[in-house]
Design a protein that fits this description.
By secondary structure, this protein is α/β, with parallel strands linked by helices. Helix content is 16%, strand content 34%. β10 (181-186) and β11 form a beta hairpin.
Length: 319
């Protein structure tokens, strides 16, 4: 059976979080990421923020993006069939610094070890699990605005953890559909690396939790919505879609224009939503100059006629 060789690395991971100010402060003032873009949810008619955080240019695999759902009143239900944990890469020498830093902001990080990696486990204010994983050789350039010393800064995504009730179907999808290479097992955790350069920024872990009830899939506070993976161009993206459909994974979306990239989504056998994403040539500079990135809200085109109404409705932010 033909494998799909085109999945490169994480592009971004998208979360359904709580309050807009709470999320903005957590990512920019606690984690020290850059606000790359403030825009709105491209699906549906309800005005909901969409925040992007990352390094200085918003490079693929450094991006965490968030829908603050609290204003809408929509709650998610954590459970199986979801991405449950986002792991970010930091220098291994920085873990003691991060533990003190997080504690000083009221968080309760726990030192853990998995797959031979030292990490800090804690939670976003809305409850989503985060990990800072100590990595010795990650050459992605962190953003630093003085909140976090650059030598300790977050390099980008490290991995995601998907909760599953059984592993067999996910293993088949990863091998044949998503070009994942089985690397290791650690208790209830099974690790896959992607193609490309492998390592940090390409990892998918599955946590076997057979007794955990199914979680929700709709937009709702406190759950991860999806993880996007980078592919090189639109032709490759089309081939990924056809490859998945040819394997029988028919829950694959048509291409969707997200303004800064084009997206094709697939509901994986576990229930977790994955995306194949192609960045636009201009990236996040398509509607803002570099020096203005993330400073003002950019209304999605389909909601442009309601720009003033939406700006007045959305929770005001203090930067």
């Amino acid at each position: 059976m033909e494998l799909n060789p085109h999945i490169l690395r994480h592009h971004d991971i998208t979360l359904n979080v709580g309050g807009a100010q709470e999320d903005y402060d957590f990512h920019t003032k606690v984690l020290g990421l850059k606000s790359i873009k403030k825009t709105g949810l491209y699906d549906g008619h309800d005005p909901i923020y969409h925040f992007y955080y990352g390094n200085d240019t918003g490079e693929e695999s450094t991006l965490v993006t968030c829908f603050p759902m609290r204003q809408s009143g929509r709650k998610g239900r954590p459970g199986s069939g979801q991405i449950k944990t986002l792991a970010l890469s930091v220098p291994v020498s920085s873990l003691a610094f991060w533990a003190k830093h997080l504690e000083s902001h009221g968080f309760k990080p726990q030192f853990q070890e998995r797959f031979g990696e030292q990490l800090l486990h804690f939670a976003h204010p809305c409850g989503i699990c985060y990990e800072l994983v100590g990595i010795a050789d990650d050459d992605r350039t962190p953003y630093s605005n003085g909140v976090i010393p650059s030598e300790f800064g977050i390099r980008g995504t490290h991995g995601i953890t998907v909760s599953v009730r059984d592993l067999e179907n996910s293993a088949e999808f990863m091998h044949y559909g998503w070009s994942g290479k089985l690397r290791d097992n650690d208790g209830a955790f099974t690790r896959y690396y992607e193609v490309g350069n492998g390592g940090s920024g390409t990892i998918i872990d599955f946590q076997h939790e057979p007794d955990l009830p199914q979680g929700s899939w709709a937009y709702g506070e406190g759950t991860v919505h999806h993880c996007a993976f980078e592919v090189t161009d639109l032709e490759i993206q089309k081939s990924v879609k056809l490859h998945l459909e040819g394997l029988g994974y028919t829950d694959v979306s048509d291409r969707k224009d997200r303004g800064y990239f084009d997206s094709v989504y697939v509901r994986t056998p576990s229930g977790a939503l994955f995306e194949a994403a192609v960045s636009k040539p201009e990236g996040f500079l398509v509607d803002e100059a570099f020096e203005d990135l993330g400073k003002t809200i950019q209304i999605p085109p389909q909601l442009g006629a309601r720009a003033q109404e939406i700006a007045a409705y959305l929770e005001p932010l203090k930067y």
